[in-house]
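Whiteboard transcription, Tuesday session. T.W. wrote the structure tokens on the left side:
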């Protein structure tokens, strides 16, 4: 346990920051808990920090100690609407690195316009849970290599980043696939463990872009959700991915909020 006294708080009392575990800190204000801080290394190796503090002085003290204890570079994610939290991290030396839009996507084909969308000639959609895992993993590796050679994994959500020991796909049953006769061309990952299903990833081999494969995958998955009584799904899209933004805007997706990734 590593305890560090700090300067007086807003009412003159001293605040004490304590590292209570390898990746957890807390601050006491006049012997009362005033906030907690956390660090987590994501699968791609990046170190993310977060702070939940009762007031700005407690946030500042936690940030000061945590940043001194942890190796750079550091990252954090905040709701862009939370101006106070964003400002706190910026005052601690963090700068905005990327923005990710949070979409709500309708499933009704009369709204999305996807009801008549079919896969291109020679391509069929394999429903989630029915794909051949060997071919699916080969597609996953190929797409990851293309992303790494292009935009890089820093632009991708943490859940699709490379994992330790080369494990890149945890649950193959969550993927719908666009298939040709001899290989898979594109995939859509749907997470259904939450109250609102979430589209975690839509990706197509670079050589198969502009054929309508992503729209066909969305047509299949959203149509399946609609038939099961689900009216909407969520999705996250990086602001720099203009093709994905145009795709979700074009099917009636609504931008409800945005998250910022900041780095120091």
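and on the right, the sequence the group agreed on:
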């Amino acid at each position: 346990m590593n305890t560090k006294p700090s300067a007086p708080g807003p009412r003159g009392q001293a605040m004490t920051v304590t590292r209570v575990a390898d990746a957890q800190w807390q601050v006491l204000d006049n012997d009362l808990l005033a906030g907690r801080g956390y660090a987590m290394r994501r699968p791609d190796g990046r170190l993310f920090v977060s702070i939940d503090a009762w007031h700005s002085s407690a946030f500042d003290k936690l940030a000061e100690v945590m940043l001194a204890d942890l190796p750079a570079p550091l990252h954090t994610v905040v709701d862009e609407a939370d101006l106070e939290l964003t400002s706190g991290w910026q005052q601690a030396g963090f700068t905005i690195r990327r923005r990710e839009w949070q979409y709500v996507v309708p499933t009704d084909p009369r709204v999305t316009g996807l009801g008549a969308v079919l896969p291109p000639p020679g391509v069929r959609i394999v429903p989630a849970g029915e794909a051949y895992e060997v071919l699916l993993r080969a597609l996953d590796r190929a797409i990851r290599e293309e992303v790494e050679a292009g935009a890089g994994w820093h632009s991708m959500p943490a859940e699709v980043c490379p994992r330790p020991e080369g494990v890149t796909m945890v649950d193959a049953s969550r993927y719908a696939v666009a298939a040709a006769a001899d290989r898979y061309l594109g995939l859509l990952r749907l997470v259904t463990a939450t109250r609102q299903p979430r589209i975690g990833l839509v990706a197509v081999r670079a050589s198969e872009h502009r054929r309508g494969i992503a729209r066909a995958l969305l047509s299949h998955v959203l149509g399946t959700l609609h038939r099961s009584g689900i009216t909407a799904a969520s999705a996250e899209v990086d602001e720099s991915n203009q093709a994905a933004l145009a795709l979700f805007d074009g099917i009636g997706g609504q931008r409800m909020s945005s998250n910022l990734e900041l780095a120091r």
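Someone added at the bottom: The radius of gyration is 22 Å.
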